[in-house]
Amino acid sequence: MHLADDSRAPQADTPGWPFAVASGILGWILDAFDFFILVFLFPELMARYGVSKGAILWTMTMTLAMRPVGALIFGAVADKLGRKWPLIVCVAYFSTVTVCSGLAPTYGLFMLCRCLYGIGMGGYWGIGASYAMESAPRAKRGMLSGLMQAGYPLGYLLAALAMQFITPRFGWHAMFYCGTVLAAVIIALTLFAPESDAWEQTKMPSMGHIFRALVSYRTRFLYLLILMAGMTSLSHGTQDLYPDFLRTLPFMQGVTVLGMKASLGIAVLYNLAAIVGALIFGQLSQRIGRRYGVMAALCLCLISMHWWAFGASVMAITLGAMLMQAGTQGAFGVIPAHLNELSPSAIRGLFAGFTYQLGVLLTSPVSPLQNFLREHFGYSWALASFELVTISVLFLLMIFGPENHSRDFHEAM
């Protein structure tokens, strides 16, 4: 493990770096929004296409399964051509496919659109995270790592708010269209942002060199792949089915939270907590190290487990959900910095993005698996047992895993 001393001579800030960081963060917000709109639209999509809830869940699974394809394609292109233009193309691509999802007349076409969307979703994180972390001042890396990952629960939160305020006026189809406004903002910001200095100094001469470098770091790749499988199990296992779980609780019937249906109001609250958690633990990791930052967040998940899955009142469930997401996204708030710091300099866009998204592929059946467990053991035990196993594995990975805290991205590795 290497804990870098932040007191060393500071690296000069890249002029215009806030534009690059902002585009990376906002793109992840949009990515999450376009993914999570489905968790609030189960009844509408089931009615439109005449299919079961399981069929809609499989469209989400296929979205997750296609993310490594996007990470491989867009990551390699970003390592060869730079961060700016691949990011712009990726945002335009997945926003267009999202609009097509809302227009799809049949379930088969809807499934195809969500698969194509998964390519864009998978391609974005590797580019956006490497662009943001490479551009950010080193001393601010932990905080901005948390801020970037906070974009994920913020996208979830915006999806819940859109369900409350947009769908009653414009219909549920509008959920697939409204993200285009943010896409235009991201593209404009990226046009003003500088190219990454770190990429300029460490770029590979050809695609062949890029893929040979990927193979040469296979041991590190395998570790990060397992780590990201655990992290995505933690995240999707606590989020994807939770609104549906809330709707099944008898004491939630007819209850409002923040003036909304309980399942929407609680989702707003736990995503606000998730944003706070990502910021706190991301910044904490700058002080105590990335691994200890993740483990501290996992402890919060364990503390909240009983209330989150077995709470017997609206207040208990709400408290548990908020603490769980603060811990879950707190752990994930460390990941953009940690994963990029452990990635080889010349293939950071591909390496970080591909390990992340291949981990997502390994865990893409999480929702169907939890749904299967629900049918046999009940919703509460299905959620809790799955997450207890996941958290235990993550603790072991953090205890015995490597760290390269606050490394200089301009230096080769």
UniProtKB/TrEMBL annotation:
Q: Which CDD domains match?
A: MFS_SV2_like
Looking at the record, the residues that make up the Major facilitator superfamily (MFS) profile domain are: 20-405
Alphabetically sorted, this entry's keywords are: Membrane, Transmembrane, Transmembrane helix
- Signal sequence range: none
Q: Name one Pfam family in it.
A: MFS_1
InterPro entries linked:
MFS (IPR011701), MFS_dom (IPR020846), MFS_trans_sf (IPR036259), Sugar_transporter_CS (IPR005829)
What domain of life is recorded for the organism? Answer: Bacteria
Q: Main subcellular localization, coarse class?
A: membrane
Its transmembrane ranges are: 21-43, 55-78, 116-134, 146-166, 172-193, 221-238, 258-280, 292-310, 379-400
Q: How does it sit in the membrane?
A: Multi-pass membrane protein
Q: What is this protein called?
A: MFS transporter
| Cellular location(s) | Membrane
